[in-house]
Amino acid sequence: MKKPWGRLRLGVVAIIMLLMLAILVSGCSKETLLPKDESYMTQAEEKKVKEAVIDYIQKRYNKNFEVQQIDKDHLFGADYTIRGKIKDGKDTIIYVTGNPPNDFQDTYVPQLWTDELEPRITKYAKETMDFRLMKNIVYGDGTKKTTYTGEIPSVYDVLKNGGDKDFTLTLSIEIYDHHGQSQAEISKFLNELKKMNLNEVIIEIFVYDDKLKTISKKTDTDNYAIYRYNISGDIQKIDINNLDQYKTVIKH
Question: Are residues 228 and 196 in the same domain?
Answer without folding.
Answer: yes
